[in-house]
Write a structure and sequence with these properties.
Blueprint: H1 3-6, E1 16-19, E2 30-33, E3 47-51, H2 60-73, E4 77-81, H3 91-100, E5 104-107, H4 113-147, H5 151-163, E6 167-170, E7 176-179, H6 188-200, E8 211-215, E9 221-230, E10 233-241, H7 250-289, H8 295-304, E11 313-320, H9 324-328, H10 332-353, E12 358-362, E13 365-371, H11 377-397, E14 402-406, H12 416-432, E15 439-441, H13 443-451, H14 456-467, H15 476-490, H16 495-502, H17 506-520, H18 527-543, H19 545-548
Parallel strand pairs: 2-3, 3-4, 4-5, 14-15
Antiparallel strand pairs: 1-5, 6-7, 6-10, 8-9, 9-10, 11-13, 11-14, 12-13
Helix pairs in contact: 2-3, 4-5, 4-7, 5-7, 10-11, 14-18, 15-17, 16-17
Length: 556
């Protein structure tokens, strides 16, 4: 209830707003009557003060200060009984009220201030009781829909009809869970605006009722976002398009009750999804460890989680590049939220590109199985191209960098344990080279397998002869040089791309490569030299695994 609503009651029919009319929308929760000189110390936010001005009648400057202090404190307005102790509202007070948008209301000589306070308080209490009855009725209506099994979809549909505008319920990844008829897709402009705003909040939505955004499009698009939470956990968002809240408090009350009911239903849904995810991951763990007896049992259990027999798949193993302890300050809840956000984006990406994709988790890894149209190398190339777009989406929506190890295509899903090991191996190989936000195929490992047929001493000799003074870096400078050389070769000798991945200036890369050339004693631009160095660095990962982990940026 605001000041404008309060002025409509009969006892204030002869009252006149003489200043601060732009603040008539200020909320009013109570009315106070006081004439003490230190009156401001006793006032509360959203409180309307009525006074004769007796305590300040000989101090015009104090009246101006009172207006300013009331505005800063969030008071609703000031009602003054004129012609008792103040012949008129002082001009300087009017100017201050206009500046601070604090309504000043001249009250008639009759009735008394006591009568005004009593009747206005009664009116406020009646309005609150009426709003409470409305909220209870709406809550009962929405709860009945859920208890009858119609779910949040029916709540959203009824809320849209009640507000007379489109309504959507989104999950934390901005996928549409439910929508009013005809609005089953999220407007891309709305999606971008929501993402921009949420990022400005550093991923942590404050405890607010709602906030509005205005997209500078033609025509302008206005919408209001209501966070849907359960036990302080972000479970989704309710998006209301248009401006239904300008018509009064009832639309907001309807939304608040809908959000409460939705949170309850989403909590139940989340519990079911978490249980399903846990069982799916337990199946995956048992599958990898060989604890499931027969192939037929594997196939039957796999069907429960969307895996299809005789269906080729491409497997990718994903991890967040940055250690989560460093990324989010070691807070367990925030770490979990970040991993859940990555999981949601991966799940959404699988759903958008194909039906039949399956996502598992194991430790810090996410394991994606994407159905292939046919068994072959071409499917792996398509998977790699798709994973690049997934990396961009996760960086954009979650704000973290992820990398993928990609296994060769498998003919049947019961070959998944081998594909997982190959994906993990490819992922570690990428990290050993000091890269981040990469897609590493397993195929590079095949050359490493051939090296195992060569005597170890011959490999060490080749490695040392190839890298010379960089073969066994003993200080940070040489480690940096070796790391730069590795990234340079991985990027097909592209200096600009190397500088980008290392987060250094191009000239720094050129300087380091010149130092490498000097220490190695070979021209790094020669094709046979670059091939020799690639092989030597691969041998380094095989023969000096522990030492190789000292390369800056290594995660292996």
């Amino acid at each position: 209830m605001n000041v404008r609503d309060l002025l409509a009651i009969p006892i204030l029919a002869d009252a006149k707003v003489v200043a601060g009319a732009s603040g008539l929308a200020r909320n009013v929760q109570s009315v106070n009557m006081m004439d003490a000189p230190d009156i401001i110390d006793f006032l509360k936010p959203n409180e309307l003060l009525v006074t004769t001005g007796y305590g300040l009648k000989d101090r015009p400057g104090a009246l101006v200060d009172l207006v300013r202090q009331m505005a800063q404190k969030g008071c609703a307005g000031l009602g003054i009984k004129i012609r008792r102790f103040l012949p008129e509202t002082p001009p300087e007070m009017v100017r201050a009220a206009d500046e601070w948008a604090l309504p000043i209301i001249e009250l008639p000589y009759q009735p008394s201030l006591g009568e005004i306070v009593n009747q206005t308080i009664n009116f406020i209490l009646e309005k609150r009781a009426e709003e409470l009855r409305y909220a209870l009725d709406i809550h009962r209506s929405f709860t009945t829909l859920v208890f009858r099994g119609r779910g949040v979809g029916a709540v959203v549909e009824n809320l849209g009809a009640l507000l007379g505008c489109p309504v959507q319920l989104l999950d934390p990844g901005f996928r549409v869970i439910a929508a009013s008829p005809g609005h089953g897709k999220l407007d891309p402009r709305c999606r971008d605006a929501l993402l921009t705003h949420l990022r400005s909040l550093n991923g942590s939505i404050p405890d607010m009722t709602a906030f509005s955004l205005l997209e500078s499009t033609n025509p302008p698009m206005t919408f209001t976002l209501f966070p849907v939470r359960t036990h302080r956990q972000q479970n989704g968002f309710l998006v209301v398009y248009g401006c239904p809240f300008e018509s009064g408090v009832y639309p907001r009350l309807a939304v608040e009750q809908a959000v409460n009911v939705m949170a309850f239903d989403l909590l139940k849904r989340q519990a079911v999804e978490e249980n399903t995810r846990r069982m799916k991951n337990e199946f995956f763990t048992d599958f990898l460890s060989g604890d499931i007896g027969s192939r037929r049992e594997i196939i039957n259990l796999g069907k429960l989680y969307g895996l299809r027999e005789n269906q080729p798949y491409v497997c990718a193993v994903c991890r967040i590049d940055d250690r989560l302890e460093e990324q989010v300050g070691g807070l367990e809840e925030r770490r979990r939220r970040l991993r859940d956000a990555v999981y949601d984006r991966l799940e959404t990406a699988l759903e958008e590109v194909t039906s039949g994709g399956v996502l598992f988790t194991r430790g810090e890894s996410f394991v994606l199985l994407r159905p292939a149209k046919e068994y072959g190398v071409r499917e792996e190339h398509e998977m790699a191209a798709w994973l690049r777009s997934v990396q961009e989406e996760i960086a954009r929506w979650v704000g973290v960098s992820v990398s993928f190890g990609l296994s060769p295509c498998i003919r049947h899903f019961y070959e998944l344990p081998r594909a997982y090991r190959e994906g993990e191996s490819a992922l570690h190989m990428g990290y050993r080279s000091g890269r981040r936000r990469f897609i590493q195929p397993y195929r590079a490992k095949e050359l490493a397998d051939l090296f195992r047929w060569i005597p170890r001493e011959d490999l060490i000799q080749f490695y040392e002869n190839s890298l010379n003074d960089l073969a066994h870096p003993a200080d940070k400078e040489k480690l940096d040089l070796l790391h730069t050389l590795s990234v340079y070769l991985d990027n097909n000798c592209q200096i600009a791309e190397t500088a980008k991945q290392l987060y250094v200036h191009r000239n720094t890369v050129v300087y380091r490569l010149d130092k490498c050339k000097e220490l190695i004693g070979r021209d790094l631009k020669e094709p046979d030299v670059t091939l020799r160095l690639r092989v030597a660095l691969l041998i380094r990962g095989l023969m000096y695994g522990k030492e190789a982990e000292g390369v800056p940026g290594n995660h292996g």
